[in-house]
Design brief:
The protein is mostly beta strands. It folds into two domains: 64 residues; 74 residues, RNA polymerase II/Efflux pump adaptor protein, barrel-sandwich hybrid domain (OB fold (Dihydrolipoamide Acetyltransferase, E2P), Beta Barrel), CATH 2.40.50.100. 12% of the residues lie in helices and 38% in strands. The strands form three sheets. The chain has a four-stranded antiparallel beta sheet, with no helix packed on it. A four-stranded antiparallel beta sheet has the order 8-7-5-10, with no helix packed on it. It is globular and about 45 Å long. The chain starts with a helix and ends with a strand.
């Protein structure tokens, strides 16, 4: 996919009300998304290129599938660990089970556990810890 097509897609997402767009062409997948933390609604872009080894054949559905995005259901302070100084619930690349706690969001002195909606591997993880998140902010992605 050439750069002018990617720029056109970015402009489209930036001017529309959609929050995420994934487009695949040949061996490239472009994922453009906008979160509440993006500055002034500027879309963020992720470009994945499939391996160029022709002997492996065409990309499988899992190679093109961007995964399930876990978003913040409430506004509050995100905690990556059960308590200060303890290890995080999860780290990038971990295999998680459905229902496993990923984060805690503290809202008005109520601690809301954010659980994995399905089993899989964490392919993206927010770097916010101890900071505020808005409803709909991307927290993790499970492939």
């Amino acid at each position: 996919m050439d750069l002018s097509k990617i720029k056109t897609l970015i402009d489209f997402v930036g001017q529309s009300k959609i929050t995420e767009l994934t487009v695949s062409e040949k061996e490239t997948t472009v994922r453009i998304f906008r979160t509440a933390t993006s500055n002034e609604g500027v879309p963020l872009v992720s470009v994945d290129e499939a391996p160029t080894d022709i002997s492996r054949g065409p990309p499988t559905a899992s190679a093109v599938d961007p995964g399930l995005v876990v978003t913040a259901p409430v506004y509050g302070v995100l905690h990556a660990a059960p308590a200060p100084g303890e290890n995080a619930f999860v780290k990038l690349g971990d295999e998680v089970e459905a229902g496993q706690t990923l984060f805690i969001i503290e809202a008005m002195k109520v601690f809301n556990k954010i659980a994995a909606p399905r089993s899989g591997r964490l392919t993206r993880l927010t770097d916010i810890d101890g900071g505020e998140v808005e409803v709909g902010d991307m927290l993790a992605e499970i492939a």
